[in-house]
């Protein structure tokens, strides 16, 4: 929705809050989100006009050429979970231990980040073909406190950094424990990186500029630029330098681990009885991607893949430790290539690494 020029700032911010049901009159093909959580469906409903535009615009239409300058506040979006009053919603996000299902939260975070990316990249011109936006990576996802499934929760995010064809979206999970919001109400923070592709050529496409307004926004922009530079170094294959002060310690530890593993493989009776081979902690799961798991672009929903990966990782830790593990953080998530076909076979492999 777009407000008129006479609306107050408070009214405009309220319109950015997504908390709407999925209308039944929409065509089936526009609502893949109906098979996910109600929150995901609501977010994709907010992006439905862009999805409809992608279906109606010919691939021969001109690409978006004129780039706009937008502020982080313009694309800031939030969604509210009414757990305290909606028992059905609460049941969808409750795990067997009556705690929050983190996997479903990752799924919703990706859906919200995608909605924000679409908002930022839109040129509001129905004669040009829209961009194809895909999740490229997710930086460290860390929890600051345990999430409760009986207290209302809010997801909020905005674009904090923009490059030529990529953007970083900072996502926050907020669960107030008092009437007044404070900084410690933020329970989880994650940074999603999206890249833009041209629908027809599948090549990188430029995105709208970002103009930070406040000091905090400028700091987040600088941090995003630093993370992007770090990712580029990693892609170039930069490894630990032999002159690094940590190189010797790293190599010594690696040699020790390999020596212990070799003994367990070749002469198990002489191995440390308190040790286990990494391969013995491995779990595997295979699925065929279904039409219900696609996103508004008709491709496999990245949030779905993150949820399945998290759940098998959780199971691996559970089987190894024999007790319920507590989630602390996800170090990094990389999407190395897109999944185009809904009939693709996926194998999820998980093993303890540390």
Automatic annotation (TrEMBL):
This is HotDog ACOT-type domain-containing protein. Coiled coil: none annotated. GO terms for molecular function: hydrolase activity. PANTHER family: ACYL-COA THIOESTERASE, ACYL-COENZYME A THIOESTERASE 9, MITOCHONDRIAL. Keywords: Hydrolase, Repeat, Transit peptide. SUPFAM superfamilies: Thioesterase/thiol ester dehydrase-isomerase. Residues 79-200, 279-354 form the HotDog ACOT-type domain. It comes from the Eukaryota. It comes from Physcomitrium patens. The keyword Transit peptide applies. The keyword Transit peptide applies. Belongs to the acyl coenzyme A hydrolase family.
């Amino acid at each position: 929705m777009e407000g008129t020029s006479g609306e107050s700032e408070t009214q405009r911010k309220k319109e950015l809050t997504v908390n709407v049901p999925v209308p039944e009159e929409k065509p089936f093909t526009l609502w893949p989100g109906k098979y996910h959580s109600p929150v995901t469906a609501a977010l994709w409903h907010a992006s439905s006009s862009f999805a409809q535009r992608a279906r109606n615009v010919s691939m021969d239409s001109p690409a978006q050429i004129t780039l706009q300058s937008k502020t982080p506040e313009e694309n800031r979006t939030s969604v509210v979970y009414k757990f305290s009053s909606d028992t059905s919603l609460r049941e969808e996000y409750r795990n067997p231990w009556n705690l929050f299902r983190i996997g479903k939260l990752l799924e919703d975070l990706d859906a919200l980040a995608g909605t924000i990316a679409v908002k930022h990249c839109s040129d509001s011109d129905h004669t040009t073909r829209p961009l194809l936006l895909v999740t490229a990576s997710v930086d460290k996802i860390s929890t600051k406190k345990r999430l409760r499934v009986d207290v209302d929760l809010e997801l909020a995010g905005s674009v904090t950094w923009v490059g030529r064809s990529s953007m970083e979206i900072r996502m926050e999970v907020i669960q107030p424990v008092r009437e007044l919001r404070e900084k410690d109400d933020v329970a989880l923070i994650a940074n999603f990186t999206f890249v833009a592709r041209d629908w027809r050529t599948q090549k990188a496409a430029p995105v709208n500029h970002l103009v930070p307004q406040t000091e905090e926004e400028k700091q987040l922009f600088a941090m995003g630029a630093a993370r992007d530079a770090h990712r580029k170094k990693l892609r170039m294959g930069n490894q630990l330098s032999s002159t690094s002060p940590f190189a010797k310690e790293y190599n010594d530890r690696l040699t020790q681990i390999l020596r212990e593993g070799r003994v367990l493989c070749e002469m198990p009776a002489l191995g440390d009885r308190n040790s286990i081979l990494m391969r013995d902690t491995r779990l595997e799961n295979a699925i065929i991607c279904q039409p219900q798991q696609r996103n508004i672009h008709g491709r496999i929903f990245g949030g779905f893949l993150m949820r399945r990966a998290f759940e098998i990782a959780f199971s691996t830790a559970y089987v190894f430790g024999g007790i319920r593990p507590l989630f602390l953080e996800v170090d990094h998530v990389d999407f190395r290539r897109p999944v185009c076909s809904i009939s693709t076979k996926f194998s999820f492999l998980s093993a303890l690494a540390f």
